[in-house]
Design brief:
There is one protein chain. The chain is α/β, with parallel strands linked by helices. The chain has 2 domains: 22-206 and 391-405, Rossmann fold, CATH 3.40.50.2000; 216-389, Rossmann fold, CATH 3.40.50. The chain contains 17 helices and 13 strands. It has helices at 36-50, 79-92, 113-116, 118-125, 144-149, 151-169, 179-192, 216-226, 243-255, 269-273, 277-282, 294-301, 320-327, 342-346, 358-369, 372-389, 392-405; strands spanning 22-26, 54-60, 71-74, 96-101, 130-135, 173-176, 200-202, 232-237, 260-265, 286-290, 306-309, 332-336, 350-354. It has a 7-stranded parallel β-sheet, with helices on both faces.
């Protein structure tokens, strides 16, 4: 790429043997900017380096930001920036490019064709380089009804579907993060007769909130500070769940005779106040923390007795909130729906109700909140599931095995 502030030096891979395996992670955003895909890229790079790979990261951001070894930035995602990136990849002779693809990440308009065309471009200018694309998101809108609602959504949604076919169809291999998405992309590959349709893999995301040490004394002190001591703590993380369902669950548990409160981590008070009278009636039993650093979020998560996840499309392994709860071994009461993998409904790690059935969800929360033994069983199952399937060490090993097949 052209020399200048924020551009990678022409010899970033200097000192490596010609046969060395060198990887480049391309991501729309990166730390310190707050972004789930950026966190994912940073943690993936760290673990892959731990397996002996040479890993660089390319992203957009402030070229004047504090330099970080192996991290290179362009000022913003533009057509010239992508063209220069492809040329630089050719010059540096990377063995693999790990493209982190999300349609809205590279452009506020919801679609950015140059990044989707990068695998096709690299096949021409750098045929020895293998592009492995991770599909973090597929579409800006999730169903046909939403496409029809607003003309702009129709245009953007159509463009995103075309770009999905482009980026996935010309990659050497494609990674999806859930079984539901694997089935969809596999069907698309068969219909479009992709040459790489056998190179489709499911590798889950991991949690970007790692558990921090938290002593019993510290726990009691924080409970007292927040007014949670002696209560059953229902918890939520971020604003992905419908506030009316969170408050409805709290109301149902309290009416059943359990002294419960709601701890909303990462949410401002206004998020729950939008429910009006429901919030006013329960306000004395609600604590909203607003946005907090990762280590503080971990301590707050460890105060929760029941983690609430009533999602309109059901729980899914693509949700960072679910992964954070599993990482902390929390009893989870949620919903299953179109985005849930079939095995989740029968998993001992969850207590689930059908999405859209609020009464059933409230009963599920009441059941878990009232039964300490059930909570202990859910904790053990959640921890076992996380360590078996979702640790960053397991994710990096899966990447490592996949990279080994793409040479």
């Amino acid at each position: 790429m052209k020399s200048g502030p924020g551009c990678p030096p022409a010899a970033s891979a200097a000192g490596l043997n010609e046969d060395s395996l060198t990887l480049l992670i391309v991501t729309s955003k990166y730390r310190p900017e707050v972004c789930g895909v950026g966190d994912y890229s940073a943690l993936l790079a760290q673990r892959l380096r731990g397996l002996g790979h040479s890993v660089d990261v390319f992203t957009a951001g402030d070229p004047g930001a504090a330099p970080e070894p192996g991290v290179f930035r362009c000022a913003e995602w533009t057509v010239p920036a992508v063209h220069d990136l492809a040329e630089w990849i050719r010059q540096q002779n990377y063995s693999h490019v790990l493209l982190q693809y999300t349609p809205t990440g590279y452009s506020r308009k919801g679609a950015f064709p140059p990044v989707a065309l990068l695998p096709r471009l690299l096949r021409k200018v750098c045929p020895q380089c293998r592009v492995i694309t991770t599909l973090h998101e597929l579409f800006y809108v999730s169903n046909v009804a939403e496409l029809r609602r607003i003309p702009r959504n129709l245009t953007v949604g159509t463009a995103q579907r075309l770009l999905l076919a482009e980026v996935a169809g010309h990659s050497s291999a494609v990674i999806v993060t859930t079984g539901e998405r694997r089935r969809f992309v596999a069907g698309l590959a068969r219909v479009l007769r992709w040459q790489n349709q056998k190179s489709l893999y499911e590798i889950p995301v991991g949690s970007n909130i790692a558990p921090v040490p938290f002593s019993g004394l510290e726990r009691r002190s924080l409970q007292e500070k927040l007014g949670l001591a002696g209560k059953v703590v229902l918890g939520s993380f971020s604003t992905s769940s419908a506030p009316k369902l969170l408050l409805g669950a709290l109301d149902a548990v309290r009416k059943s005779g359990t002294d419960a409160c709601l701890l909303a981590v990462g949410a401002e008070t206004a998020y729950l106040q939008s429910t009006g009278k429901e919030y006013d009636a329960l306000a004395p039993h609600i604590v909203c923390t607003g946005k907090v650093p990762a280590d503080e979020a971990s301590r707050l998560l460890q105060l929760m007795d029941v983690f609430l996840l009533p999602l309109a499309d059901g729980i899914s392994a693509r949700r960072g909130t679910l992964l954070a709860a599993l990482a902390h071994g929390l009893p989870i009461a949620g919903t299953y729906g179109r985005s849930s993998d079939p095995w989740m409904q029968a998993s001992p790690a969850f207590c689930l109700a059908p999405a859209g059935h609020s009464a059933a969800f409230f009963r599920a929360v009441q059941e878990v909140a009232a039964d300490p033994a059930r909570r202990d069983a859910l904790r053990q199952a959640a921890s076992a599931l996380f360590h078996r399937r979702y640790t960053w060490e397991a994710i990096a090993r899966d990447y490592d095995c996949l990279i080994g097949t793409q040479k």
